[in-house]
Amino acid sequence: MTSGATASLGAPERGPVTNLPLPRYVSMKANEGNVRRGPSLTHRIDWVFKRRDMPVQITAEHGHWRRVQDRDGAGGWVHYALLSGVRTVLVEKDMLAIHARPDPSSPIKAAFELGVVARLGACEPDWCQISAGGYRGWAAKEDLWGVAPDEIRD
User: Fold this and answer.
1) Contact residues for 130 (Cβ-Cβ < 8 A; gap 6+)
2) Threshold 0.85, pTM exceeds
């Protein structure tokens, strides 16, 4: 690696309000959440999130407001009270195999449909433990949205 490449890999940006890393993933706490054009109640509502537990990515902070985006890059500003630190992911592959262990040759415990929102557990370099609908197991990280490619979780 050149010295220029390593310089750009410095410490992650930190939010000015929370001092947490940006960007970061969270989930929607409410069944409905207004997404506004700017960080205040006076800004126009552009659209409404209508799915509780949906993972979103926080890209900016301003007071009690967080700029978020969904899997498709759509987003805006939401009040922090509508967000939860509980981590979820969106299944991005139809009939995604959920394995007993983080190993493609381990037994398949379930298959999740495209678009399923699952609770995120531990993550290794290429696998994450997820659960939904009473099923729990390991899935390939590349088939999930809501977890960073380099993220490791215990």
Assistant:
1) 89, 98, 112, 118, 119, 120, 121, 136, 137, 138, 139, 144
2) yes
